[in-house]
Design a protein that fits this description.
This is Diacylglycerol O-acyltransferase. This protein has about 350 residues and is of the alpha+beta class. The chain is built from nine helices and eleven strands.
Length: about 350
């Protein structure tokens, strides 16, 4: 494509003054990813917003807590007891990072109902749709299973996606499908202002600081004996394995090395190839607990989406005022967004009921 002219800004703001059943109007912030990652851009957006009830009080965000694993023991910390764990972590690091390299170059997911594999997908029309879940309901599942909210959300998405891929088929067809989970490499507990992020030696600096995990979407073994909670545990196991393997650290270092020594084009090419060979991209951002306002106009809801990627399906999530807004970008004419949302809603209801049945 032609190079963008230097006098053209890398952002647009669209104000749509058209009343709908959901809101009095909409504002679209369109920002180029070269400006920064989700954390940076969310911090910039929050710098423009205030609490609707009291603008002088800062916004607050949900606390981040780790899941307690009942299988972990606090017995002695002998170095000999840690040897198997260290060796397993080293093996997983090599295995996961090697798989990530292969995924960016040679290994492609199977063609399926969520991956067309058509060339030039990024230039084709897309459909953006959303659905909303109660965080209280998700926390019920989290508490019963003693996992994280991210584990629950990922499990719901994975099960719902498999149900969508299975709909209308007489037999189980478990195509090899992976989700590219985008992760921020900062230790995020709160957002910093744009001014703070640009200070010398700032703890959280502006820019693109992210890596990704290639997580295999668990297969459906049987619709008759399906335990929906298995997808949460499988998602937890897959993500924890890669989080603890060191593959994320190596991937982040590789992206930084490519940027420094081969230029941003090489970094973009590596990310493009990895996404292109995957079935979907997943990303999430933490939003504030209180209602926000922009120039004294209360904000009813918000969501974000990454556009222009070579994947047929992208799912992005953001929390706000006790709700989780899930947005879908689907390849138009290939994925049925309403059927996909219905499948994910079914997965959520199945998991909530199964969790409530646990004594």
């Amino acid at each position: 494509m032609e190079q963008l002219p230097h006098n053209r800004p890398l952002w647009n703001i669209h104000i749509i003054k058209y009343t709908t059943s959901n809101a009095a109007g909409n504002i679209i912030f369109k920002l180029h990813h070269s400006l920064g990652d989700g954390y940076s851009l969310m911090a910039a957006l929050l710098s423009c917003l205030q609490r609707a009830d009291n603008p002088s009080v800062p916004l607050t965000f949900p606390s981040l807590t780790s899941a307690q694993n009942p299988n972990l023991s606090v017995r002695g910390t002998s170095i000999y007891r840690n040897i198997p764990k260290v060796l397993r972590s080293a093996f997983n690091t090599v295995s996961d990072f090697g798989w990530s390299l292969m995924k960016s170059s040679y290994v492609e997911d199977d063609i399926s109902l969520i991956r067309s594999g058509n060339p030039g997908v990024e230039f084709k029309p897309v459909v953006i749709s959303t659905m909303t879940f109660s965080l209280d309901d998700i926390k019920q599942i989290k508490t019963k299973l003693r996992v994280t909210i991210n584990d629950v959300i990922t499990g719901i998405i994975f099960l719902g996606t498999r149900l969508y891929m299975q709909e209308g088929r007489n037999k189980l067809n478990n195509e090899h499908s992976t989700a590219l989970v985008l992760l921020n490499t900062r230790a995020i507990r709160e957002y910093k202002s744009v001014k703070e992020m640009h200070k010398p030696c700032a703890e959280k600096v502006w820019g693109n600081q992210f890596a990704f995990l290639d997580v295999s979407i668990p297969e459906l073994t049987s619709l008759e004996s399906l335990n929906p909670l298995d997808f949460v545990w499988k998602a937890q196991k897959l993500i924890q394995r890669q989080r603890n393997s060191g593959a994320i650290f190596l991937t982040a270092r590789l992206l930084e090395w490519l940027r420094k020594f081969k230029g941003p084009e090489a970094t973009a090419k590596y990310i493009y190839s990895t996404i292109k060979n995957s079935s979907m991209a997943l990303s999430n951002i933490i939003g504030p607990v209180e209602r926000m306002a922009l120039a004294n106009h209360p904000i009813k809801s918000l969501y974000f989406m990454m556009i222009g990627g070579p994947e047929s399906l992208t799912i992005a999530m953001v929390s706000y005022m006790g709700k989780l807004r899930v947005a879908f970008k689907t390849e138009k004419g290939f994925i049925d967004p309403e059927k996909l949302k219905s499948s994910i809603q079914n997965a959520f209801e199945m998991m909530l009921k199964a969790a409530q049945d646990i004594a």
